Amino acid sequence: MGFISQKTLDDLEFNSILNSVEEHCISDLGKKLVQEIKPISNKPDLFIELAQVKEYNSSLISENRIPNHYFEDLTKEIHLLKIENSRLDAASFLKIATNSETVNELLLFFRKFSEYFPTLLSKSSEIEYTKTAIDEIQKIITPYGEVQDKASAFLREIRKEINIARAKLSSSFSREMSRYDNAGYLDDIRESVVDNQRVLAVQNMHRKKVKGSLLGSSKTGSIVFIAPQATLELHRDIQNLQHDEKQEINRLLKVLTETIRPFFPLFISYQDYLTKLDCIGAKAKHAYANNALLPKFSDSKRIYFEEAYHPILLEKNRKSKLPIVPQTLELSESQQIIVISGPNAGGKSITLKTIGLLQVMVQSGMLIPVDEHSETYFFDTILSDIGDNQSIENQLSTYSYRLKNMRGFLKRCNEHTLFLIDEFGTGSDPDLGGALAEIFLEEFYTKKAFGVITTHYSNLKVLANELENVSNANMQFDERTLEPLFKLHIGQAGSSFTFEVAQKNGIPFSLINRAKKKVEGEKIRLDKTISKLQKERNQLQRNSQVLENEQLKAKTQTQNLSDKESKIKAKLNSFQELYDKNQKMLTYGRKSNELINKYFQTNNKKALFAEFNKWVLIEKTKYLELNPPVKKDKKAKAVKQAKVKAEKQKEVQLEKIEKEILTKVVEVRKEKEVEAKRKAKEKASYRFKVNDKVRLIDGKACGIIDKIEKNKVVIDYGMFTTQATLDKIELVVAAKK
Question: What are the extents of the domains in the chain?
Fold first, then answer.
């Protein structure tokens, strides 16, 4: 069983993460469940939870988005169903039916998209799919949460009688009001409503002239409200019928309650399922908002968080539009413990909290804001001693308090532990506290625990350098401005920059010198050496970056030159070929010109042909020497002849098919021309009517003819109307006769 104490969660401000996740919930029950989230101690259960959150997160960016699963709290209804002879009201039944339909919709969705949501499907398979309770409720309750007329014949008859009585009452009241209004007894408002009953607004001076029951008066007393005598009996009849209606509704609701009472365990499972899905959805939406993902779980002991962000700082800076620097940090068998040193306000504690909070989040079933190449490991125990939220009582004995924590660390620490200690060894005499801190660090190292600690103690920096699998690290500072860069550098301890920071903050140089004299020379030299090394390392990093940029620039230039060289070579080869070809043509021209001139002088054709054939034979011999002929066997020749024959047959066949197709195309074109002429004739002779569905000839939107005036029509497109002439529109669907 794992152990991650509430103190560790408080140290890492895990509650702030839960508050952020809670904002993405859609129900109060989901919010309550989010606040109860704790690290999952069972590894298989954790992997199932993470898989569900990952699948839900993937649905947020895909077409197969999980249906809305808002639901109402049924705690009161479930409690009443457990009590014998209890009765639910109509609104409660509607809530039960709605929640049940929501669950059924989700179950069907996950079955349909089982390839995309295998884990969510697996968890939903534990829930029963049934419409029995829904059907029973829908027989009685309307979608508006009222009892249906058809719930019983008696209820239908009562409501029919109520409607008839109300119609009579309305008619009677209207007659009486008209009579007394004509007599001039009523006020300008004529009528009002008192106790859900229509009454006449009678002027006080005429109250005795109106027969009926006095039900009240205005504030000034100038108007009295009288229910006419003719309507009183009808109103009593309606009240009696409404009483009967209420009795029948109560009876039906009680019967329905008894019908669905056995289903209350199902409703409990539905509510638990929807609450859990709301919690999973909130985790996924929180991850989506922070570009979080699920890192790979390593089989070997290794944490590798690449480009990791502190989640709380990420949200805060995003709202304030401030930049945030990600960290890359690794713990493995060869780098078991990291000791971070350097000045305050450089980001040591934030780096330590980042790795701790991300590990707690992922072990609580949440995705984390890291690069996709990141890896992590399941730790049975995560211990922390950050101590920046101690009470006044603890501050009075800080060292005792921290020693008590160390006792717990030593008791629980093993090879499956991740520990996080901020300002390791503080709270006592620096020399004595530092010596004890060394022993603790050696114990953690011997027990093969993974951890990150921050410290100012030089002896711990030296020890980290001596132990094989422990690494020093520091938060980088700009040595000129002493501004923090918030970047972690592994492999070297950090200077505290104590005197430099003091000087930057305006402490007189004379006081700083006096302070230096009071400190041991070795410590100053060590701190000075570390500071110098850190400055040199920063300079080397800058030089390295410059060299890398220069190398990249040189590489780009080399590539450009290589491309240009290739293009120039290609052009030269092309020019050379053209030159050789032109030279050959010139040679052929000169030889031909020489033979022709000789013929003109001698007029000897025989000598001309003889010399020409001789020249051609010489040129052919030269050509064959440069391009020797390829020997062809008889078999290859036969294959080639067969291939040529087959291609000729194929061409003949294609010509035949082409002729047939062309003939058919001509026929089809003629048919289309005839059809087009027929349609054009019909269109020209068609007389448009109101309610014809039409569209503009050059448009796509269809509208309905609303009005026709001479050769103009008004077309209604639903959201607007427009005018057009008859020659600018075409029929889509003729109006029904």
Answer: 15-149+260-292, 152-249, 302-518, 545-624, 630-685, 686-733
Around Cβ 709, how many Cβ atoms within 10 Å? 8
- For tokens 């010139």, name the residue: 586
Burial of 133 (0-12, 13-18, 19+ CB in 10 A): buried
Q: Residue 455: CB partners within 8 Å, gap ≥ 6? A: 339, 340, 341, 423, 424, 425, 437, 461
How far, rounded to the nearest angstrom, does the alpha carbon of residue 719 sit from its chain's CA centroid? 35
Confidence category of residue 396, pLDDT binned at 50, 70, 90: very low
Q: Distance (Å, rounded) from C-alpha 245 to C-alpha 238?
A: 10
The predicted pLDDT at position 27 comes to 94
pLDDT in tens, 637-696: 677 777 777 777 777 777 777 677 777 767 877 887 888 788 777 777 778 888 888 888
User: Distance (Å, rounded) from C-alpha 55 to C-alpha 106?
Assistant: 14
**Whether the Cβ atoms of residue 374 and residue 294 lie closer than 8 Å to each other:** no
The CATH class for the domain spanning 152-249 reads mainly alpha
For 169, the enclosing helix (H) or strand (E) is: helix 153-182
Fold classification of 302-518 (topology level): Rossmann fold (3.40.50)
pLDDT in tens, 27-62: 999 999 999 999 998 889 999 999 999 999 999 988
Beta bridge partners of 721: 716
Instruction: Compare 376 and 400 and report the one with higher pLDDT.
Output: 376
φ, ψ of residue 435 to 5 degrees: the values are -65, -45
CB-based contacts of 9, cutoff 8 Å, min separation 6: 15, 38, 39, 360
| Alpha carbon distance, N-terminus to C-terminus of the chain | 81
- The CATH number of the domain covering residues in 15-149+260-292: 1.10.1420.10
- CA distances in angstroms from 432 to 290, 305, 438, 608, listed in the order given: 44, 35, 10, 120
CA dist 621 and 615 (Å) reads 10
DSSP one-letter string for 438-460: HHHHHHHHHTT-EEEEE---HHH
Identity (one letter) of the amino acid at 732?
A: V
Tokens at residue 695, please?
């569209």
Q: Is 0.90 surpassed by the pTM of this model? A: no
